[in-house]
Each structure stands twice: as structure tokens, then as C-alpha cells.
Amino acid sequence: xxxxxxxxxxxxxxxxxxxxxxxxxxxxxxxxxxxxxxxxxxxxxxxxxxxxxxxxxxxxxxxxxxxxxxxxxxxxxxxxxxxxxxxxxxxxxxxxxxxxxxxxxxx
Length: 107
Ligand SMILES: [Zn+2]
Ligand SMILES: [Zn+2]
Known about the structure:
Strand order of the largest sheet: 1-2-3
Largest sheet: 3 strands, antiparallel
Bound molecules: zinc ion
Oligomer: single chain
Number of domains: 2
Number of strands: 5
Mean pLDDT: 88
Strand content: 35-45%
Radius of gyration: 18 Å
Low-confidence stretches: none
Order of helices and strands: EEEEEH
Shape: extended
């Protein structure tokens, strides 16, 4: 996690967080300060807040040329900038979105 620091003492390492819906409750391990961080995602391209949380597959190359899904992470896609990607996702539901770039067999 980057960009998070204690508002009281500036500590950036010893922070603990509890996810609670769209909020993270953070606590500083150095001074004990508690604060909340809003998770509301904002589009980096258009600044819009109409974002959708979409599960995205984490794909790794296993032995040979086989690709396997090793995990899922949640990404936020913009309804405007990522409209085509969202459409693909909704068409393939409930399958997770595949990464834009798959590891190649000879990479
Ligand atoms: Zn602190
Ligand atoms: Zn956007």
C-alpha cells in the first residue's frame, strides 16, 4: 500500500488496517492514532467516480505452456474509459476478467 501515512506522526511502515466495506480503519503502530481511509476509487484518466469492482484473474505460467489462474484480485474499472472491458466482463460472467497481457510460453 502506498501513499498511506499516519496523519499524527507521519509513520508509514507500522500501520495496520481493517477493511470495512468501502472504508479501511487504520491504526498507527507508532503513536496509536486511528483514522479511516475511504476506498472510493476514482478514475485516473477521467477523474470520474462511476467505477465498478471487477474480479480479475492472476495468471501464471505453470510447467510447459500451460497457463493457470493462481488467484483473483479486485480491480476498479471506469464505466466510461473501460466500457469495452466491462462489456467483455459482463458477457463472460461469472468468469473473472483475464489479464490484458498473458505470460507467453517463451517469455
Ligand atoms: Zn502515528
Ligand atoms: Zn474514466
